[in-house]
Protein: Sugar/nucleoside kinase (Ribokinase family)
Organism: Streptomyces griseoloalbus
Amino acid sequence: MTGAVRGGALLVVGDVITDVVARHRRPLAPGTDTAASIRRVPGGAGANVACWAARWGDAEVRLLGRVGSDAAAWHERELAACGVRPLLVVDGETPTGTVICLVDEGAAAERTFLTDSGASLRFDPGDWSDALLDGVARLHLSGYLLFTAPSRAFVAVALKAARARGVPVSLDPASAGFLVDLGIDRFRALVEGVDVLLPSRDEACLLTGSSDAADAAARLSRLVPLVVAKQGAQGALLARSGEVCARVPAVPATPRDTTGAGDAFTGAFLAALLAGAGPEQAAEEGCRAGAQAVESIGGRPPARA
């Protein structure tokens, strides 16, 4: 075992998506028009995590993603502008994934997603090379990779390679809705070998059948060594060996758009770990990033000057 590279890079593997964000003040009116402010912005859980990690830390951040030829150049430029080294596989048959984000401009700025994952779900083992881990200290996988058979096979290959090199792996379950379709037992089998699991409160509860976030995080930590349950305005819970070991409060914020807040937390959390922080301190950084994310539109931090 060669071991992870001390002070090395973060490799994120996940979805690169075009987000169409529609912000509306009034409830949606079926069968007619609802006034909205609409913007096209780069997104995708994996890409967002990479961009926030690059903003929050000094380590090199690389992103392996799969996009269609229709928007590959645009996404590459947007990632580079955030300080991320893009490693994009261009799919000549399927367009880049698109998500319609419906954002209610009420006090909670809650959002609803309509998702066409497009090329991002067409990863397969042929897209992996062990050389991707050269110089890498941590590997992060977007849970969206678990939702098709070819990309699940890709995850298995990547996990095996990371274990062989002693590179720790983190994973974000990504979507409570898609987890239902995947099946809880299958998910639990697929994440064997993952070192850090970063579910939302809803995902943690779904994966355990518990209605209590702390109990859910504790149960999941019997499956994965470290569980960091993201709870939005309630902060985060850390659990190890079947017990909650830390509760990290949220940073106060006035939400405008909660899209990507969990991705911001994850990116900053991973950047802090790479910088040498312990998990609790890293979660504090994650809460700071999440607070920044909800006060701006879209799932990405501002581009670097």
